[in-house]
Flagellar biosynthetic protein FliR
Amino acid sequence: MLGLGLSIEPQLWTLLFTMVRVGAAFLAAPVFSAVSVPLNVRVLLTGAVAILSMNAAPIEPPAEIFGLTTILSVAAEALVGLALGFILQIAFAAPLVASEMIGVSMGLSFATAINPQTGQSTPALGQFLTILLTLLFLAVDGHLVLVDLVVRSYTLLPPGGAWLAPGKLMNIALFGGYAFLAGLLLALPVGFLLLCLNIVVGMLSRSAPALNLFAIGIPASLAMGVLALLVGMPAMGDYMLVIVREALDAAQMLVLG
């Protein structure tokens, strides 16, 4: 008998309690939280991973369903899951930061499209880089590593003592600066070539004031940007792999220790 005299199978209550952490992680993590993923698929995937977690570690849910201890335990489980997914989401913001820097220099900041991850309007170049990062994330089995982190979190942070220390929360917040750092480094090859082009255009404007810079500078910036993306894409792809590995390592270190 649990709570207010409600007769509920203990295994079902344990499953629902386990799904809180797993569902929160999938709700915040990239790929799993995409708008294109149907809701029933998310629920089934959450239940499957929760069953796997129940078999991997002993999980004891709160004795009462409606109680202050239960509410605090559910909040702690949701906090751990959201922290695991949020760190990966921070890393996935790096392509959007890079696209803003590149798009402004190229003159493509006005070109927007619907992002399949969030369903919101984002720069077209940012959407392209985000899709590329998502494919690399799946190629290196990042989604499986995330599932493994969620399952192992029940051993390292068992339910009932899963509250994150203030120091860990501070480190997770400070990790938000990694999105700007990674975005800057990701845009560095293209940004450097566009900076050199702007210097050349500035020198032309000083030597020939009568020259129409808008008729020359904007097409030249667009052409140079496309050429720079073509040349620098291998290096950008390699750094995207670094971003994925750094995000997975940070999720383990900052949350699980």
